[in-house]
Amino acid sequence: MISVSSVAKSFSLTVQFGCHTALLPSRPQIRRWAKAAADTSAQVTVRFVDTNEGRKLNCEFRGRDYATNVLSFPYETDPVVGDLVLCVPVVLREAREQHKPAAAHFAHMIVHGMLHLQGYDHEAGKREAQRMEEKEREILVRFGIADPY
Predict the structure, then answer these.
(1) Helix, strand or coil for residue 121?
(2) Per-block mean pLDDT, blocks of 10 residues, the chain (149 long)
(3) Closest by alpha carbon to 18, among 74, 64, 71?
(4) For domain 12-141, which architecture applies?
(5) Does Transmembrane helix show up as a keyword for this record (predicted)?
(6) N or C, which end of the chain has less CB nearby within 10 Å?
(7) Binding residue per annotation — 20?
(8) Is 108 labelled a binding residue?
(9) What is the reported pTM?
(10) 116 carries a ligand binding annotation
(11) Domain residue ranges in the chain
């Protein structure tokens, strides 16, 4: 008889709201999206910020003086330990410009950030970008979210 043992992955999520709008996803939505993108156990904080905080963090940690949609701060990769920072005005603007529901774009950014926490890097070359985008599509389709690209 073959015995297969599986270790259940643990998942811990903290959500922080540095800004508020009615269009923010609920904690259960955030949890489902982030957990679906976690290949291993994870301890993650997701923080929603305004443009000022987003710009400050992007400038301080990436040397880029503008607010971006999502920043990922990985501390460990197995288990995954890290922070995601989503700049709400940027995510909402991009959703409008791309004619997407806000929830779908928030889901994409959370999945995208979670993959970064696990070592995926779309800036490491075309092959890595394709690998990451395919993984994002694979996860998002489970939630009925269309190809974000």
Answers:
(1) coil
(2) 54 96 96 96 97 98 97 93 98 97 98 95 85 96 95
(3) 71
(4) 3-Layer(aba) Sandwich (3.40)
(5) no
(6) N
(7) no
(8) no
(9) 0.91
(10) yes
(11) 12-141
